[in-house]
Amino acid sequence: MSNAREQVLQQLSVSRETTERLDAYASLLEKWNPAINLVAPSTIKDLWTRHFLDSAQVLDLAPPGETWMDIGTGGGFPGLIVAVLASEMRPELKMTCVESDQRKATFLRTAARELGLAVDIQSKRIEDLVPAQADILSARALAPLVRLLDFAEHHLAPNGRAIFLKGANHQREMQEALEKWQFQADTYPSKTDPDAVILSLGGIRRA
Predict the structure, then answer these.
(1) What pLDDT does 1 receive?
(2) In sequence order, which ranges of 43-93 are alpha helices (DSSP H)?
């Protein structure tokens, strides 16, 4: 048992069933990654902190709501991790993961099935989907903020909230976005990267 795994599980404080799901998910990622490159190979050894804990922190910041859309889910971050945790903590939550890469979407469907998660996997381009009217929209390492806000306008419910994990350039991205958009923003420090933040945005409309 790795120290990182123990530390992350201690922070998450989840049931044995959820722990088993996370372990099974880690095994699936390690098995599929050489063929599909779901995460950068150099980060597999840091899977529990770099990907699992990084994704898990968005659930704590999410407002109440029943529908959650995660865009550009890739190997499942944060959408599938949120779905695993929500099955215990917020069972009413309905998760949709959007991933246009067909191979990654196949992985997500396989993982959801093997983990026993009722997740809707959409293997289309985000802009081609019917507006979702989602209560919560999330994305991690997908696109600049100004582009993410296009997706948020398309898919968020009027009172919905967007939660974006952003790196060291978040302040510059915010300034660029404010030239085209108006929004109310809360910024939270990342638990896994001192230079990163989680942005929680509401009231999104074009300037």
Answers:
(1) 47
(2) 54-61, 79-89
